[in-house]
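Postdoc handover notes: sequence design on the structure in folder B. Input tokens:
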């Protein structure tokens, strides 16, 4: 029984203590005046009566009521019901004013004061029971008695109230006799009656309708948010303007948290004066009046729920973990079904008639039912994870969190982790843990309804029914007798509330009377017999074990039975000593051990091999077992949620091996390096579970007398028959009261000593696992100090591996004791902490605890001593056999810088080598890394024993290293490796290596330093190409003896004269330092003692050229002339040598020697082609307008149209505007800029004048004249070509590929985006180019009109960004095409991304890291598209007869790319070996592409980074090669070879930045001198020539060029392919670009094959692995194979083998003659030669995007007029193999001519051009001979017969009868007519022979 009310008090406004306008309350009266013993009077009630502060108000307010909650120091809650009404009193302000004592605080009250004010007065009841309505009624009644002046004395009412006693909780099954107990009718003696119903079960919270109210106010998602926040211990603040609502909301929130109890600060109504409580650091649930909202704004970590506005505000810094899915979703669904049942049927066509939600009270219980169901799911099976560690005198219970999470596979779940760690859950365990107690609804639900919940969880309606049942029980609990709930309480009458009566102040009560009432009642209670309510205790049911309930999602990694089988077999093999078998299975086992099931299986299997706690193994068995244990532990998290480490713990102390004289090494010394051993929680959980087993055994023993000592074999959970520990404990608790005192103490002692013995056992175990084998090395504790859970270091030594390392540990040093004691101390500290914690929790006596503390240091010391012995022995073990290190083969002249270091090659993101794409895993591999002067080489063997005999090689030139970063790697094998390197190379190779433990870390550092030195030598002479063959010292010897003395003097003189020319005043002496970016062009002379640096800003007008050429210079000139470029200029007719020295006027161009001293332009070649009419002096002036002085020079001339291609750098900004000034504007004086700009114009005019088309058209001003014979054969063809250029222009200038529609039809310069500056360009240019001819093509319009309407003579391709503000004059004959070029930075970044895409460093499953996505993001293909697009445009312009000047950036990157591609596309010569070499030498090397700088080859250019401009060019060539495979003499391999060696620095060809630098170093002409060592090639070209003689690898068998073919490749991204150079690798031999190495490997392979042959018969089959074998070698193409066979046959016959090229040429010649003899060649031979078949690409036209409509424009002229054949639009596709070849050549046309053919019914006869094609076996006909559109096809397969025919109606006249013949097919009969009987006979014979052949 309990008192209804503990205290009754009246609180009133305190007139005396008013502090600064804020009033205070004071307690007027309080009953009883003495505190009750069991509940002291709570302090501070007066604050809570008026939470917003005590204030006087001018008018009376209605009475109010609310309940505040106070928590006392014992965390008991007191409910304070406050009933407040207002009493009038005279205004104290006015009184003060009269008395003249106004204080300053009141000065501001100058407002007119009312005469009467009202002060609040509160009636308060303090109770420990929460009966809001009863309190409201009682206090209301007291007020009514006062107001209405009832006759009842107030003392009686209050006395009755304070003495009223009610039951705490009703009986569990309310029968009749208990009805009185759970129902109590009370009266306060004022004619009132109230029935108080107490809940049946006290444990369940009473919520009324508060929960439903809360959901109505805030909504489902918000309340769930608050619910999760409260459970995960966040701070929650409710705001409302109603106090009662605050209380209700808080109560509702606590009600849904059941069965967890909130244990932090809980203040539903917080008074304004105490607001600083809100900044407390602990979690809370607090309610505050909205009046104080502004003060809550600055709280940063508080979740604010506004009940009136229905919002929940979560600050940014707060992260609320929500319920795990699918629970969250299901809970939300259920709640919406309760709160808004209409939602579900809202879309139904015939909604049910009534879907009203239940009444509020019922709804409230339904919501709580949902939360009960939710908790039952969250905590199901929790009782199986309880450890009971003491039963007597009080049960002590611990919860095994890790096991619970592990079995539910929710270890990752944030929410559950936090809940289980929280205070509420700790309370839950201590309250609900004991196995023998009264049970409630939740216990029943979580134990007995698991199955039902699991079956129904997917079906919301079934769950809903369950929830409704729960709601019913909850409702019944609160309202056991709904019928009786009647109240009869008087309310104050309406008028009395406002009447004058109420003016009488509330009376003071007579204290004596009230006290008498209370004493009287107390005395009565004492005499009454105590009401004993029998508490029904019972055993708490546990429910089904967890394992069964979560098997659905528990085992995430599906471990097939096959894997477990592998683990079992492997263990069996180990114990049967079948080591070879075990070794084969090992990798598979280690992979399988990633899965949980396999790990459990391993522990079970190992358990079976333990006899009497021991299992002695030999060395190899021990190694394997330890490896498996390590692998198993490696994937355990530090909390060991699957219990794997727990299961292994007894095993690591069981497995051991003998090591001589009584010394045994146990497995624990080799498995120490795992986080789990350093985790306190793990040890505690282990300890408790063992204690539980022992205590269980203790009581089973006492009951049955059976000896069950061996606890290891007892399962902690027991199975069906065995009694679980909790059941035992429950039984013992039940019996406890019946035992005698002696029995009780005996049991307590037994339990205590059990715990104590376990503690000793665990102190030993912990010392085993925490003390490292070599205690002199403080290794295990080094990083963690065993305090936190951070990872422990990874460098343990297993058993005999120690052999290879132990020597480095100096155990004999004198510091051993000091060191080891350090280890010992930290271990002792850790164990002490553990022992303290567990012993205090499990009630070990103090004496025992002290004993333990003294024991632990001894245990540790003893263990250290045994370990020392073991360690000494382990050093004597023979080291484990590691794979032998394989030596790589080196190139001649290549030398090792560092000998091999043992490393592991780790797999990266390329999946082929890891075996993920099929095939064995070649990586990880173990071997060594070698650093040579040229390469970085890894050579080793795969770890996987199935491919253990293969050799894996990965290497790349050291010069191609682009990025090196340190990584830390852990291998899945037995070694844990600390440090590694990731090395990335721009030859698309990546090496991730991890140093083996035998490699000292300082050695790895030395390796890095050497690598850096080699990668970035201080000077280019330090690169391999220069140092090859010299001694492999790291320091480059600069003063090497030069081979060719005369050459040396020559270059010296050259440099000297250059210096002299520059003028002495600019030469500053200084120490040699690597050139920086600014003064790059002045490379210091290494050969000359006089080291100089030339400043770039020399005003070059002051340079004087020596007027006469000295003899040494003449010698230089003859050398220069020998350069390939001159030969090319002569071939193109751009000037001969005589011409360069003695000018003949008839040639338009000359070779100028103005730059022979490299004074005009440092980066240009010595000889340049310039217009004949321009003197050298002009050139020296012009060059200043261009960046880097790179003025326009001619580099190619179109042999047909004589248009020229020029290259230059972009203009300096100052030169641009002048350049565009019209020549007619009068110059404002001869300023220098103007004169230069005029000279520039003269220069351009001179170029234009050199074009024949210009000189002719200036003679005859007609358009027809303009289209001169040079250009094209006919007008019509020109019209056809025109629109294409316009379209191309538009695309090129649109910068990016925008939708074609964005350009206007006529096409303007500049893209739409640049529309702001469109006016700068001539609007007519696009119109002209788009092919809008003048209205009368052959008329003679006026000159101005003619000029404007024709295409320009010279197009200047310029950079859009530079050409701002220029004005184009309509009379000038040149025109500027502004385009956007890609910046060098763009190329650099794009390349980085491309490398990452093609060679990712780690495999990932993220969709945005997939290959194609990364490739797209790199934008590499887009850059290729831009370059190709511009090049094709230039080709078109040149082909249409104009000249083009490419003038972009500095003239050495994009310009070079475009110019070289244009020449390659336009001139077939450059598509041969010689031509391509010449093209690269001329455009890239001579014209100064900065290879060293862009390749970051030296220390100076290291910061600029690697920018592969040349690679981009090669990729473009590769794209063209793919589209025109028959036009190139060289193969794709040739391009890859160049791409590899241009960064490898093996050859000198691609070193240095210009010819000037090459001359300065003396490398330009040395190739002509005799070679010192024939095997060392200086030039890549010589090397290719030599190789090409030996092997056809560079040759393209498809090469069969057409004469003068201009290639026009497709350039859209969809037409471009990723170059396989970026993707392929051959792990068998490394990159295939160093041929000396290949030959050696083949020899070795042959030798091994010969040895193998001695065995039995051998299969002919070979397995080819994609990333391992070199495909071209293993599966060569047919021709290569035949040539190889031929060679080997010749060798067998002893003939001298012929060179392959001769053989090939012979075959080709023979085949050609054969073709001529045989009019119908057999197809097979022509396919083999592939020579005369035109390629498909040539015949497809170019697809252009033209103004919004994609139309395929036919670009070619008539077939005779041009070599370009055209597309065949809808040709019926023949399913034959040959459809890709377009048959236009005579070889495929067996017979052709004109025949008349009769049309179908009622159609006339028509002449058609017929082609009989024997190859495709068909008869095709065309409109005319020129027509490329095939009109129809007669398949010869369908022809039945050919017979002479008769003329029919409408046949052609005047033709003899015998000329007619018919062709009968299966479908119809064709009637034909030839021109005479002869040809008719020929046709019939031809068709007949075709039929008979078939």
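Designed sequence:
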């Amino acid at each position: 029984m309990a008192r209804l009310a503990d205290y009754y008090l009246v609180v009133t406004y305190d007139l005396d203590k008013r502090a600064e306008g804020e009033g205070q309350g004071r307690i007027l009266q309080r009953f009883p005046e003495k505190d009750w013993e069991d509940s002291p009077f709570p302090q501070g009630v007066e604050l809570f009566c008026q939470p917003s502060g005590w204030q006087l108000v001018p008018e009376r307010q209605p009475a109010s009521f609310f309940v505040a909650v106070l928590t006392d120091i014992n965390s008991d809650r007191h409910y304070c019901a406050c009933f407040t009404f207002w009493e009038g009193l005279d205004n104290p302000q006015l009184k003060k004013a009269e008395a003249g004592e106004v204080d300053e605080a009141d000065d501001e009250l100058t407002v007119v004061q009312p005469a009467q004010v009202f002060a609040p007065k509160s009636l308060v009841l303090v109770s420990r029971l929460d009966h809001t309505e009863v309190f409201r009624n009682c206090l209301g009644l007291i007020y009514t008695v006062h107001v209405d002046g009832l006759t009842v004395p107030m003392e009686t009412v209050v006395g009755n109230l304070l003495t009223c006693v009610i039951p705490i909780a009703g009986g569990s099954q309310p029968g009749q006799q208990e009805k009185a107990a759970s129902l109590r009718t009370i009266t306060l003696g004022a004619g009132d009656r109230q029935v108080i119903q107490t809940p049946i079960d006290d444990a369940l919270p009473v919520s009324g309708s508060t929960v439903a109210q809360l959901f109505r106010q805030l909504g489902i998602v918000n309340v769930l948010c608050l619910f999760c926040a409260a459970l995960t211990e966040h701070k929650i603040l409710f705001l409302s303007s109603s106090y009662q609502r605050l209380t209700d909301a808080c109560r509702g929130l606590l009600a849904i948290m059941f069965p967890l109890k909130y244990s932090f600060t809980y203040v539903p109504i917080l008074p304004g004066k105490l607001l600083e409580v809100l900044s407390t650091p602990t979690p809370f649930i607090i309610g505050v009046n909205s009046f104080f909202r502004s003060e809550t704004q600055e709280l940063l970590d508080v979740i604010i729920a506004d009940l009136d506005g229905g919002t929940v505000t979560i600050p940014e810094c707060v992260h609320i973990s929500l319920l795990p899915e699918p629970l969250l979703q299901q809970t939300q669904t259920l709640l919406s079904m309760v709160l808004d049942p209409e939602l579900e049927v809202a879309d139904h066509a015939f909604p049910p008639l009534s879907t009203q939600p239940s009444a509020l009270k019922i709804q409230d219980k339904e919501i709580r039912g949902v939360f009960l169901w939710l908790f039952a799911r969250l905590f199901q099976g929790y009782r199986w994870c309880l450890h009971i560690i003491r039963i007597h005198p009080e049960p002590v219970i611990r919860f095994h969190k890790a096991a619970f999470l592990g079995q539910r596979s929710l270890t990752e779940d944030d929410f559950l982790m936090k809940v289980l760690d929280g205070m509420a859950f700790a309370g839950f365990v201590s309250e609900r843990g004991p196995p023998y107690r009264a049970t409630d609804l939740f216990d029943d639900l979580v134990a007995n309804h698991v199955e039902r919940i699991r079956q129904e969880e997917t079906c919301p309606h079934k769950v809903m029914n369950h929830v409704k049942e729960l709601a019913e029980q909850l409702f019944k609990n609160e309202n056991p007798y709904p019928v009786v709930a009647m109240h009869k309480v008087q309310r104050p009458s309406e008028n009395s509330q406002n009447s004058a009566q109420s003016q009488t102040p509330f009376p003071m009560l007579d204290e004596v009377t009230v006290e008498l009432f209370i004493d009287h009642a107390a005395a009565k209670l004492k005499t009454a017999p105590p009401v004993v309510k029998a508490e029904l205790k019972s055993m708490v049911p546990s429910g089904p074990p967890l394992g069964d309930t979560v098997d659905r999602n528990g085992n995430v990694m599906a471990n097939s039975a096959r894997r477990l089988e592998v683990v079992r077999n492997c263990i069996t093999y180990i114990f049967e000593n079948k080591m070879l078998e075990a070794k084969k299975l090992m990798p598979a086992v280690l992979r399988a051990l990633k899965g949980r099931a396999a790990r459990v299986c391993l522990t079970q299997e190992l358990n079976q091999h333990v006899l009497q706690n021991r299992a002695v193994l030999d060395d190899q068995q021990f190694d394997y077992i330890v490896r498996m244990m390590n692998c198993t532990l490696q994937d355990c998290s530090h909390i060991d949620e699957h219990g794997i480490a727990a299961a292994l713990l007894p095993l690591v102390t069981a497995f051991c091996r003998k090591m001589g004289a009584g010394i045994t090494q146990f497995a624990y010394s080799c498995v120490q390096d795992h986080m789990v051993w350093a985790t306190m929680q793990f040890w505690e959980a282990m300890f408790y579970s063992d204690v539980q087993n022992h205590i269980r055994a203790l009581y089973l023993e006492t009951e049955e007398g059976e000896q069950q000592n061996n606890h290891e074999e007892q399962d902690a959970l027991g199975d069906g028959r065995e009694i679980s520990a909790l059941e035992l404990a429950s039984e013992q608790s039940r019996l406890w009261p019946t035992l005698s005192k002696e029995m009780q103490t005996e049991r307590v002692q037994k339990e205590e000593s059990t715990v104590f013995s376990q503690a000793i056992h665990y102190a030993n175990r912990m010392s085993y696992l925490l003390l490292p084998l070599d205690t002199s090395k403080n290794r295990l504790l080094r990083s963690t100090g065993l305090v936190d859970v951070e990872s422990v270091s990874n460098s343990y030594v297993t058993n005999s591996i120690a052999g290879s390392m132990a020597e480095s540990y100096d155990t004999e040093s004198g510091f051993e004791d000091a060191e080891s004691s350090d280890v010992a101390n930290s271990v002792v500290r850790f164990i002490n902490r553990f022992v303290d914690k567990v012993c205090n929790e499990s009630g070990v006596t103090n004496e025992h605890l002290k004993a333990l503390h003294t024991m632990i240091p001894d245990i540790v010391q003893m263990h250290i001593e045994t370990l020392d012995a073991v360690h000494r022995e382990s050093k004597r073990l023979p080291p484990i056999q590691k794979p032998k290190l394989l030596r790589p083969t080196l190139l001649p002249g290549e030398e090792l810088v560092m000998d091999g270091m043992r490393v592991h090659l780790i797999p990266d993101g390329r999946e082929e080598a890891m075996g993920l794409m099929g095939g064995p895993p070649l990586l990880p591999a173990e071997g060594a890394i070698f650093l040579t002067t040229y390469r970085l080489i890894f050579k080793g063997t795969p770890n996987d024993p199935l491919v253990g005999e293969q050799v894996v090689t990965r290497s790349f030139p050291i010069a191609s290293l682009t990025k090196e970063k340190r990584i830390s790697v852990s291998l899945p094998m037995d070694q844990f490796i600390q440090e590694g390197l990731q090395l990335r190379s721009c030859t698309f190779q990546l090496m991730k290596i991890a140093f083996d433990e035998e490699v000292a870390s300082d050695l790895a550092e030395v390796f890095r330093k050497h690598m850096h030195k080699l990668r970035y030598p201080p000077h280019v002479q330090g690169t391999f190409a220069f140092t090859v063959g010299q001694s492999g010292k790291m320091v480059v010897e600069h003063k090497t003896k030069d081979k060719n003395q005369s050459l040396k003097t020559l270059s010296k003189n050259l440099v000297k004269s250059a210096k002299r020319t520059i003028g002495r005043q600019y030469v500053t002496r200084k120490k040699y330092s690597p050139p920086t970016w600014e003064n790059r062009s002045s490379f210091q002379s290494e050969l000359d003692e006089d080291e100089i640096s030339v400043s770039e800003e020399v005003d070059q007008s002051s340079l004087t050229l020596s007027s006469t050429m000295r003899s040494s210079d003449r010698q230089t000139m003859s050398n220069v002339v020998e350069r390939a470029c001159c030969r090319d200029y002569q071939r193109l007719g751009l000037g001969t040598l005589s011409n360069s020295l003695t000018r003949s006027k008839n040639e338009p161009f000359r070779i100028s020697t103005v730059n022979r001293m490299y004074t005009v332009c440092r980066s240009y070649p010595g000889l340049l082609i310039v217009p004949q009419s321009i003197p050298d002096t002009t050139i020296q002036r012009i060059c200043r307008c261009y960046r880097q002085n790179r003025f326009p020079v001619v580099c190619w001339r179109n042999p047909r149209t004589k248009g020229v291609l020029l290259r230059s750098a972009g203009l300096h900004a100052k030169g641009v505007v002048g350049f565009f000034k019209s020549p007619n504007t009068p110059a404002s004086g001869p300023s220098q800029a103007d004169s230069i700009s005029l000279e520039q114009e003269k220069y351009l005019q001179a170029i234009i004048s050199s074009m024949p088309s210009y000189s002719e058209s200036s003679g005859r001003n007609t358009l027809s004249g303009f289209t001169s014979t040079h250009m094209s054969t006919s007008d019509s063809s020109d019209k056809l070509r025109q629109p294409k250029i316009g379209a191309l222009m538009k695309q090129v200038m649109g910068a990016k590929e925008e939708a074609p529609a964005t350009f206007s039809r006529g096409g303007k310069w500049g893209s739409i985006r640049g529309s702001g500056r469109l006016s700068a360009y001539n609007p007519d240019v696009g119109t002209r180019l788009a092919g809008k001819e003048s209205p009368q093509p052959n008329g003679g319009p006026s000159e101005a009109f003619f000029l404007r309407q024709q295409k320009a003579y010279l197009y200047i391709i310029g950079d859009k960004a530079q050409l701002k503000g220029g004005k184009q004059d309509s009379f000038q004959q040149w025109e500027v095409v502004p385009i956007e070029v890609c910046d060098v930075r763009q190329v650099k970044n794009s390349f980085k991304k491309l490398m990452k895409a093609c060679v990712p460093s780690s495999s990932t499953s993220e969709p945005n890291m997939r290959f194609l996505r990364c490739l797209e993001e790199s934008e590499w293909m887009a850059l290729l598209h831009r370059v190709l697009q511009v090049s094709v445009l230039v080709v078109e312009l040149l082909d249409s007869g104009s000249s083009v000047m490419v003038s972009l950036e500095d003239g050495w990157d994009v310009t070079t790319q475009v110019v070289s591609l244009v020449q390659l596309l336009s001139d077939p010569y450059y598509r041969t070996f010689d031509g391509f070499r010449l093209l690269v030498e001329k455009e890239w090397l001579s014209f100064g592409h900065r290879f060293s700088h862009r390749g970051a080859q030296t220390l100076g250019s290291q910061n600029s980074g690697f920018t592969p401009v040349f690679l981009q060019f090669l990729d473009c060539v590769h794209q063209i090669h793919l589209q025109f495979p028959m036009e190139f003499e060289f193969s794709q391999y040739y391009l890859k070879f160049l791409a590899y060696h241009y960064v490898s620095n093996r050859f000198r060809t691609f070193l240095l930045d210009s010819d000037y630098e090459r001359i300065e170093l003396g490398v330009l002409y040395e190739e002509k001198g005799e070679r010192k060592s024939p095997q060392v090639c200086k030039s890549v070209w010589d090397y290719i020539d030599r190789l090409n003689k030996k092997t056809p690898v560079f040759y393209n068998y498809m090469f069969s060029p057409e004469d003068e073919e201009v290639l026009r490749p497709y350039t859209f991204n969809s037409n471009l392919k990723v170059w396989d150079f970026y993707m392929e690798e051959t792990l068998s031999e490394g990159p295939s670009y160093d041929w000396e190495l290949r030959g050696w490997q083949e020899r070795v392979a042959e030798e091994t094959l010969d040895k193998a042959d001695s065995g039995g018969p051998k299969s002919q089959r070979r397995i080819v692995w994609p990333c391992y074998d070199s495909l071209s070698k293993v599966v060569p193409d047919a021709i290569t194979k035949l040539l190889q066979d031929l060679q080997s046959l010749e060798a067998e016959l002893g003939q001298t083998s012929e060179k392959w090229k001769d053989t090939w040429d012979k075959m080709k010649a023979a085949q050609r003659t054969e073709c001529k003899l045989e009019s119908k060649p057999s197809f097979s031979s022509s396919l083999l030669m592939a020579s005369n078949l035109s390629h498909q690409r040539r015949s497809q036209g170019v697809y252009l995007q033209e103004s919004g409509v994609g139309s395929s424009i036919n670009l070619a002229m008539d077939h005779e007029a041009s070599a370009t054949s055209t597309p065949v639009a809808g040709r019926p596709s023949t399913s034959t193999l040959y459809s890709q070849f377009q048959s236009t050549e005579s070889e495929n046309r067996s017979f052709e001519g004109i025949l008349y053919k009769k049309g179908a019914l009622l159609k006339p006869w028509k002449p058609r051009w017929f082609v009989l094609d024997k190859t495709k076996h068909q008869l095709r006909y065309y409109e005319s001979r020129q027509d490329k559109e095939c009109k129809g096809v007669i398949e010869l397969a369908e022809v039945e017969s050919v017979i002479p025919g008769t003329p029919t109606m409408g046949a052609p006249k005047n033709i003899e009868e015998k000329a007619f013949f018919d062709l009968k097919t299966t479908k119809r009969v064709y009637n034909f007519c030839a021109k005479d009987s002869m040809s008719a006979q020929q046709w019939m014979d031809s068709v007949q022979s075709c039929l008979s052949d078939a």
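Context for whoever picks this up: Residues 20 and 105 are 5 Å apart (CA to CA). Don't rerun without checking with the PI first.
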